Each structure stands twice: as structure tokens, then as C-alpha cells.
Amino acid sequence: MSTAPALPRQPRRLGPRGEAWFDRGLAVGLAGLSLLIGVAAGAPDWALLGLLQCAPLWWRRRSPVAVYAAVAAASALQVLLVDMPLFSQLAYPVAVYAVARFSTAVAGTVALGVGLVAAATAAWDWTSPYVDPVDYPLQQVVSYATTIGVIVVAAWALGTLGRTRAAYVDALRTHAEQVARDAEQRAELAASDERARIAREMHDVVAHGLSVMVVQADGARYAAAKDPDVATAALGTIAATGRESLGEMRRLLGLLRSEQTGTRPQPGLDDVAGLLEQARADGLPLTVRLPDPLPSVPTGTGLVVYRVLQEALTNVRRHAGLVRDVEVVLDAEPGGLVLRVTDDGRGAAAGGAGPGEPGRTGGGLGLVGMRERVRATGGTLATGPRGGGGFEVVARVPV
User: Fold this and answer.
1) Keyword set for this entry (predicted)?
2) Is the pTM of this model over 0.70?
3) Domains in the chain, start-ordered, CATH in brackets?
4) Count of CB atoms within 10 A of residue 399's CB?
5) Pairing between β-strand 326-333 and β-strand 286-289 as defined by DSSP bridges
6) Higher model confidence: residue 184 or residue 266?
């Protein structure tokens, strides 16, 4: 069994509080050592310059440009007061690093340029008192200037590298947050689609089962006085339909609770014949024309055809009134299936205005659910009353 490689340990980083204390310690430490060196050497100007150069480092993250300007001004003052390097000059590369790290690229470049000029100026100031002008003074000046310039360039390069790396990490973090938001939105959309799908399934199951039970119950009520055997058969059909509908509802509710319900799969094209036989047994006068053999189609396509047919038959029971013939035709055409369900009932012709006859164009969800199912497969659904009475449902489902 393969195991995922361990992630490399991330380096420890200071938090905001730790960074603040580090800056304070750096400023206090450099300023304190500079004061001690100045006092020990009996040079108050050294102590003053050390304080002026090192104390601003306290605010190097908050105001890097201002801190650099203060340190650079104190270093320029040193050229006028002292003709030798001081310990406190360590503050200058620290200030250059702060500008390159915590400010903009332009400010860092300006600090680098000023630092290189300052390196040449300091080298000339420190070497001129000790070198004879005739004894190749430029060699000493270039040597000192190069050494100081390398320190300045290194501080600028490290600061620039830190700034670009921080910008890259921020960009990665922003991208990751955007990806997380997109994933959350996709999950919400998928959940919404799943809820709509389950709602359609529940509507189909409940509407079909209850319509069959209502029709059979009415028939049993009328036949009970004259022919008890017919009433008994109708009651048996009611019980069987109720059990089947309850099983379907348990399966759908199981989908909401778990990804694996252990129940039977969704109905498909092979179950259409059984659905039609059940409709005949319920008393619908059907004329059926199915392809023989049934074409092999994807599971999703078969489910859509089955549900559309189921809902169409349910609507006939609920809204068509007295029908003499319900024609069901399923044709396999190039690129898809065409399902046509027509009836000669009077529900559509009457407009659904009569008592107990809600009509086909009411506020129910049956036609809406059928249309959503067919559109989800890229197909089309046409519904409407027929000339001379009746209603027609035509669904084209691509394969």
C-alpha cells in the first residue's frame, strides 16, 4: 500500500508580535553597542551618530522609506564629523534591506543607487587622510568602495527577494481562496440540481401512485354494491400501487441520507412495458406501438423516457376525464427517441374549468418536471391540446 510522501517541514516564521519585538531588539541592540563604543572611546560624536543611525530601525517595517531617509541623513552627517568607519554604520544596509523588502520596487532601486554613491563617497572620505595623492589613491578608494557596494547590493537583493516572494505567496493565497469559493459555488449548484432532481422523482412517484389509487378507489366504490369481485381486485391494485410507491419513496429518501442505499436501480426503457401493462390493468384504454426490440440507450435516457411516460399517463388519469383511447407511440429515430402520448379526453377541450376538472394547464408541476427532465438531456418537449379534443405530449430525447 503506497503512502503519500510527507510534506516538507515549513520554516518557522515570526508573527506580527514577534516581528515587532525583533525590530525593537535590533534597534536597541545596535544603538546600545554604538553608545558603549562611543563612551569607551571618549568620543561623544560617535555616540550621537550611533544613536541617530540605529534608533530609527525601531520603525523599519512600519515606515521603511522614512527610516531609510533618517539613517542616510545620519550617515551623510558622519562624513562631515568623522573620517573613519563606525560600528553604527551597520544600520545602513539594514535600512536598505527594509526599503527593498517592505516598500516598492522603485523606492528600493532609489535606495540602491544612493547606497552605491554613498559607498564611493565613504571610501574616498576614509582613505584620503591616509594615502599620499601621488601614491595611486584610486586603488584604495576602489577597493573600499567595492567592499561597501557589495554589502549594499546584497542587502538590496535580499530585500527584493523577500518582497517578490511575499507577493508570490499572497497571489497563491488569493488564488487558493478563489478556487475554494468556486468549489463551494459548484457544490451549492450541484446540491441544488440534486434537490431539483429528487423533487421531480418524488413528484412522479407520488403523483402516479396516488392517481392510480384514486381511480381504483372510485371504481371500487361504485362496483362494491354490484360486483364485489371487481371491488376486491381494485382494492388489491390499490394496495400493490401503494406498496410500490412507498418503496420508491424510501429509495429516494435513502438517497438523501446515504450515497449507497442498497435498493433497486432506477427504472429504464425496459420497464416501459410493465408501466403500460399496469396502466391497462388500472383501466386506461391504451393503444401502444413500441419498437421491437427496444433500442439500447443510456440509463439516463431510459429514465427520462420512463418518467415522461409515467407523468403523461398520470395527467390523463387526473385531467382527461372520460377517454376512449390513449395512444402511446415510441419511435427510435436517428440520434434519439420520440415519445408521443395522445388522448381523446375532454379535459383539455373544456379548459379545466369544470368542477373537479383542474385541466392540463393549471399550476401543477407535472409538465414543468417533464420539461426539465427532457431539457437536461438536450431534448425538446411539446405539449398542448389537440384539435377536436384531447391532449398530446411529444418528447424528443437525444441518445
Assistant:
1) Kinase, Transferase
2) no
3) 16-180 (no CATH), 269-399 (3.30.565.10)
4) 16
5) parallel
6) 184
